[in-house]
Amino acid sequence: MSTFHIDYHGQLIAVAQESADSFLVSLPNKTLQLVRKQDSDGADFWFEKDTDNETPETAELGAAIEVVLGS
């Protein structure tokens, strides 16, 4: 499991990559397990584990993770 940091609202947030599409995000007030899923067109969507809806928060966190993974 690799660990890196993302910038989220001006704070550095620790992220642990558990697998290719599973990430543990340590926010100041809670820890989220994010799962990346792709639709049939190849677009990424970010969900909290055991949910089926992307929220503005999970989308923003996922976009920050993608920036780090893409660099």
Tell me the layout of helices and strands.
Elements: E1 2-8, E2 11-19, E3 22-26, E4 31-38, E5 44-48, H1 56-70
Antiparallel strand pairs: 1-2, 2-3, 3-4, 4-5
Low-confidence runs: none
Residues in β-strands, percent: over 45%
The shape, in one word, is globular
N→C terminal distance: 18 Å
Count, helices: 1
- What's the overall average pLDDT, rounded? 93
Query: What characterizes the major β-sheet?
Result: 5 strands, antiparallel
Helix/sheet category: alpha+beta
Strand arrangement across the biggest beta sheet: 1-2-3-4-5
Helix-strand topology string: EEEEEH
Q: For the CA atoms, what is the radius of gyration? A: 11 Å
Question: Count the strands?
Answer: 5
Helix content: 10-25%
What would your notes on this structure say?
- The chain is an alpha+beta fold and 71 residues long.
- It is built from 1 helix and 5 strands; from the N terminus they run E-E-E-E-E-H.
- The chain has a 5-stranded antiparallel beta sheet, with helices on one face.
- It starts with a strand and ends with a helix.
Features:
single chain, 71 residues, alpha+beta, five-stranded antiparallel β-sheet, 1 helix, 21% helix, 48% strand, globular
